[in-house]
Design goal:
This protein is an alpha/beta fold. It has helices spanning 30-33, 36-47, 51-66, 84-91, 103-115, 155-163, 196-205, 221-225, 229-243, 246-250; strands at residues 74-78, 95-100, 122-126, 139-144, 165-175, 193-194, 209-216, 254-260.
């Protein structure tokens, strides 16, 4: 992967975004992810019923890390999927580009932006996260939600996210010491689980510093997606109480990482 200073055309695109091993084009669940029916049902399957609590918490995490967003704040969202965060950040005033491998997912994102009256402020691109078609330091913030669990070799990808950001890289991971280990092998796209030490090593390799980290969901996402909202809410209340303890924090299934680009003075 090239990580030099030569800019690339912002109109370039590629057929590969997620790469499993190396950059050979293999993708965890690539065919599944790009199927028309998966894109059409993606939000309803994951974020209705109890899944709405996941959607709300993820959006809170992104807004907390990036906000308050000043007019024209330049954001790249990698693996934008159906545009949940893309349209939300555009509505907050961000100048945002959403990038994904799936034409079907991107089409859902475009429809979502149009429904929100944001088509003129959001750009969607099909592209390659290992070779982002932007010059160095092009964005103020780079967001990658539900991305790194697909990576067998995450370091080159976070280095590329760092290359195009002049300030911030925000992402999440699923955690090795959580209940997610009970079912992750069943997922159609697989799911890499991380230890905190692995994330710290990734940040160091990308020359990023950790500004903040939040850990949440003792009960994993899969549980909330399987139950109705009325049942999920009391479980979530207990989950939050446990999560506010040291043991609960330790076994949380997801972490949100707010990393920063060191300034020239090295701060």
């Amino acid at each position: 992967m090239w990580i030099g200073s030569r800019p690339r055309s912002p109109t370039a695109s590629s057929t590969v975004l997620f790469v499993g091993r190396g950059f050979d084009g293999s993708v965890k669940g690539q065919d599944w992810y790009q199927a028309d029916e998966v894109a059409e049902e993606y939000d309803d399957v994951r974020f209705s019923g109890g899944g709405a609590l996941i959607d709300r918490r993820e959006k809170e995490a992104v807004l907390s890390a990036l906000g308050p967003i000043e007019e024209g704040h330049r954001v790249l969202e990698v693996a934008c999927g159906t545009g949940r965060f893309t349209t939300m950040l555009a509505d907050q005033g961000a100048d945002i580009v959403g990038l994904d491998i799936s034409r079907e997912m991107l089409e859902q994102g475009r429809e979502k932006a149009a429904d929100a009256g944001l088509s003129d402020t959001v750009s969607f691109m099909r592209g390659d996260a290992s070779r982002l078609p932007f010059p160095d330091d092009h964005f103020d913030s780079v967001v990658a939600m539900r991305f790194f669990h697909l990576m067998d070799e995450p370091v080159p990808f976070i280095q590329e996210l760092r290359r195009v950001s002049n300030e911030q890289v925000f992402f999440d991971t699923f955690n090795r010491r959580s209940l997610r280990v009970l079912y992750t092998w069943l997922l159609p796209m697989g799911s890499r689980l991380y230890s905190e030490d692995q994330v710290v090593d990734m940040l160091r390799a990308a020359d990023l510093t950790l500004a903040n980290a939040e850990h949440d969901f003792v009960l994993p996402y899969g549980f909330y997606r399987e139950v109705p909202g009325a049942i999920a809410k009391p479980f979530r209340a207990v989950d939050e109480l446990i999560g506010n303890t040291i043991p609960g924090d330790y076994v949380a299934s997801v972490s949100y990482w707010d990393a920063r680009v060191p300034n020239e003075a090295g701060d």
